[in-house]
Request: fold
Amino acid sequence: MTEHRYSSPHLTTDNLTSLQTHILAEEHEYPGATGDLSWILSAIALAAKVIANKVQRARVEDVLGSMGTANTTGDEQQKLDVIANEIIMRCLGDRANIGVLASEEDDKPIILRSKAEGGHYAVLFDPLDGSSNLDVSVGVGTIFSILRTTDIKPDTPEDLILQPGTLQVAAGYILYGSSVVFLLTTGKGVDMFVLDHSMGAFVLVIPKLKIPPEKKIYSINEAYYDSFPDGYQHYLDWAHKNGYSGRYIGSMVADIHRTLLKGGVFLYPPTVTHPEGKLRLMYEANPMAMIVEQAGGKAISGDKRTLDINPTGLHQRTTVLMGSPAEVDLVLNHVNRP
Ligand code: AHG
Ligand code: MN
Ligand code: MN
Reply:
């Protein structure tokens, strides 16, 4: 039976699909699906709407600026880092299938319930990414990664969640920019939604998004040029002579979102201040790596695929090189040149 599609000049897409209906439709594609993941994703969508409202009103409600405190990895906490963290905790905390919540803003994971009590999933997140850009109204975001809690008897809360990125069951981000964009993958490609404020729902705008295979754009903080390993300096010297554009926003979510839509490569190499890289593996690099790979891109950390890294700590950092496959390979050719 052919699928009935409305052909109306008023519809911008063949069908109107909300994030909620998309999640439920995907759930039906998984035999034996319990609806657990859908339940968690709907809570994340709720948190995203609340945070979007807070970000839009930050200047009006005077919740910009620093808390005057630092988080566990030494980053200065913006007021909205803490507010976004609390919003996510409030929206996710009552989902009975979540066992662990782990945030960039908290030293230790929070155990809500054991696996035996139904806590089958862990949600790891960067509640507000790029928050130093908040005061100047530049795009910031939320990044999330969903894992199944491990079966082992944990010595520490981290034991329940320290798994390679290949075991993520879902990953995504919300970009609070000129529009509020929700990107999601559950391992069957990447789907892009935009918040339609007139009805308070995220609507599907790009199903099965694919990253352009190549594009002469690199995204890196060139201020650290002198402290990059010489292979990265060699790549930049080459790119300067071969028609590349530099684009760097300083919010990973915004830089990755542009890379996914336009193509190119995003890099955060080792620097003197962060010899192991600055970005956090569990709630920045891994979710972004899953998204980029699911969109047809590549994500490398040092000499291995980012998703293959066996983590040793919730807040461990890693170098990041991800984007269009041809562009990632060009960087690697220079970095690994004999
Ligand atoms: P966060 O605001 O969650 O601490 O993340 C900031 C990260 C990331 O968003 C961005 O790509 C990177 O910091 C920028 O670092 P530099 O300012 O060193 O370029
Ligand atoms: Mn971040
Ligand atoms: Mn953050």
